[in-house]
Amino acid sequence: MKQGFLYILLLFGASNLCSQEAGEQRLGTVSFVTSNNVYVKFESTQAIVIGDTLQFNGVPCLLINEKSSTSVVSTLLNDCSVKKNDVVSYTLPKKKITPTLPDETISEPRPTRVPPRQKETETNEEAAAYSENIRGRITLASYNTFSNIREDRNRLQTRFNMDALHIGDSKFSFETDLAYRHVMLPSESNYRGRTSIFNIYNLNARFDATPDFSLTLGRTLNNKISTVGAVDGIQAEKYFGSFYVGALAGFRPDFFDYGFNGDLFQYGGYIGVETDSENFYSQTTAGAMEQTNAGASDRRYLYLQHNSTIGSNLNFFGSAELDIFGKNENTTRLTNLYISARYRFSRSVNAMISYDSRKRIIYYETFQNELDRLLDDDLARQGLRARLNLRPFKRILFGGSYSRRFQSDSQNASDNLYGYVTLTKIPGVDGRLNVSYNNNQSNYLTSNVLAVRHSRNFFKDQLNADFYYRMADYEYGTRNTEYTQNFYGTSLSYSFSRTWQISMSSEFSKFEDENNIRIYGRLTKRFFSKRK
What we know:
Structural class: mainly beta
Distance between the termini: 53 Å
Oligomer: single chain
């Protein structure tokens, strides 16, 4: 424990010795998040440099890969997690570099990797549709936990993902997302779970026969029908102007290990329309799926998905699933409904509201021995969430959110209140300061969490240092005792080129007589197709 505190003090001293005047910051808002990219809107990107990073809560979280006059396309760093409407910052370099790019605005990204559709009447237009664009990342990470009461746990993990569009300017594309992790246990451990786990999340090849027609083979996630999940099989999609149709056939991943399962055959299709103009973007998809287990019907449902952006301020998203197969074969159940709306009132104010209603998905063949119990508990778990972000002054951000979970029998209810204040540049000290508070109340637990975080960059933003303290109070409804847990943490992240980054973080937590130390390390290598 003494070594942990000494480590924090040494880093804090280094931050004072190495500090230098930071450049002016520009703030942007996350407008869309896909499995590979994060899209961020700015008032202007004139001074933003491709290859630099964007910060979220003081930590370099996004690597800038492309930009237009008001938007950038980026990829995640440091295992960060960002959502729509999150506010990120960019520190201007002392010497502004302004790459020459077309003066165009990146609209909300298409939920598909199909390139912009073009007429096939001219050879040069077709060639432009098949332009190589490769993005990939390899990571090696270790997670280590040491405790004075519990058994130590060490885990190694590697992950490889790549999105290679039109390899060699051809009609072929390839996508993969693979992960392997290995848990190392002490010889006296009682753990009986799997210690070596290999997962394939995406692994597919696509052939664009024409700019309007594509075939995909392998394990694929189709963002037009995101509720369907991964499909091990073949998918075809054809555009007719603004309209499109698609069909798929294959297998669902195994319930237990996410591997291939030849008993879980499924097939379906969808239709949709996509509109893209200067001030309006919209995509609406409707479809049907039949899922089986060993040849018998397991689930049959209809789904609807819609995403639209009006102007640059209002975004709406909605999805729904209606099951049309049940115990009596003609039962209908609304199993999933989700709607959200985000509006940016001004550069300084944006708000979001969402509602969801979800029922347990029942696979009638898989769960045939438990149907009565599952149907007796056929209640909709509902949720309502609202969020507001404000920037009343140039260097001060604050905001909050409220969410409520509930169902008709009053069980599993919870209320969550969250608020934060961020000072983007601390006078006389430099760096970024964030203070947040979270209160959660449920049927059985009340928790209060207070967190303070200070972060800053050094050496022209190549090095980021982060220090935080978090205090969590827990009170269980069945007990009269309050429990308090304290966390002290620090992290360092160093980008020694556009494509290499190494990061280390450590955390010390104390709960009554239990002390835990967590150490996390990560090495990341990125690669890109060469610019032509």
